[in-house]
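U., I forgot to send this yesterday:
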Amino acid sequence: MGKGDKSGVGVFLVGGFLLFALGLFMIGDRRQMFTESIDAYADFADLAGLQNGATVRVSGMDAGEVTSIEAPPTPEGKFRVRFRIIEKLQPIVREDSVASIQTDGIVGNMFLQVEAGTSGAPQIENGRGVKSVEPFQISDFLDQAKQIVETADELLDEVKQDLVTIVRNVNDVAEEAETLVAEARPNITSMTASAKNIADDVEGVMNDINAGKGTVGKLFKDEKVYEDLKSTTETLKKVSEDVSKISSSAGEIIDDAKQKDVVGKVDQTVANVRDLTAKANDLLDKFQKEGDDGEPSMTDDVRQTMASARETMTDFAEDAEALKHNFLLRGFFKKRGFYDLNEISPAEYKAGERAPGYPLDRVWLHSQSLFDPSTDLIKLTDEGKRAIDRAFGEFIDHVKDDPVMVEGYAGVDNPSEAYLLSQRRAAAVRGYLINKYGLRPNYVGVMEMGRVESTAKDGKPWDGVALVRFLDKKEKKALDKEQKK
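Result:
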């Protein structure tokens, strides 16, 4: 190879290298790789075809490119689009700026648009995120338009059917009206003839009155009748004058009564009544005070009698409870499964130690749908009563023989308040069931569960009541045997 050939090859290589360097520089400049920039990100549920390297524009000006797209870790998560913005546009990108995915034209490439923020918001820092709005796609618009057209077609079909029905009804009404007119034509003719006869009779009566015939005619035409009416009017005038004189006499009688101190006598009577009232009050005070020798008053005696009666009833209840556990009677209660539902404590009930059998059905009712908020959620509403009826209907066929427990729950933090509120709620539902369905009170119990944490996602405690039906041992065995089959 000669010296000239070597020089040509060298020039070709140097020129090629320069062209490669120039192309690389132009590409880097186009992608703004030689310009100072900041990194940011935005989250989207739908990328709408956005890819790595897509253009980023700030208020319509090319400002960078998408550097990476991170997939969400869960189906509910969003794609994280990381992008770069040249540093000279950083002052107009604020923390309240909004990023959106848009199309360059109708069918052009997708790019990331970042709107300028407001002066009141701070500038975005390197590595921080901006707000985002989901992209609007033409396919979504076409789907919505298709749904609108389909809905419009359905409405037009319904309107068309309604119009056909209306026209048919109008035709039916017209035919019925024509039939009624044809049937009523003879009656109308008869009524017209009767009206003409009545008009002729009225005309004859008026002629007789003008002629002075008949009672009414004489009243209008007879001068004697006029004189009698005039005389009667004068008599009424005299009677009015006599009444006026009587009123004057009554006034004189009242004045005379005042002179004779009738009012003073009335005042004396009122004073006597007040004196009698004071004596009655003294008598009541003596009735309530102790005797002279320190003995209790009659009121204290009545109170003591009531206390003794209350103590006697308590003793009677204890004796009845003792009879339940007697060997002659306790077989009945053991067979039934419980002695007294009201004696079961919440701790024993939760542990299942003294539960009245095996819990079979449990229906939960929330307090918001049962109780009136204006009564501290303890008074049943009409909607709440209907909800209880629907829930109780699930096991109403067996409730005559099986005990029912009304569990009360309250979500308040204070344990004592939760206990009282759950007790009142359960008692209100129990009273409603007994009064409406005629249940035996000793077969319907109240269990104040208080505050009980739930396993729901929100972690809120139970708040309301639960209706629980129990089975005895015999029914439980029969049910288990049937289920095994």
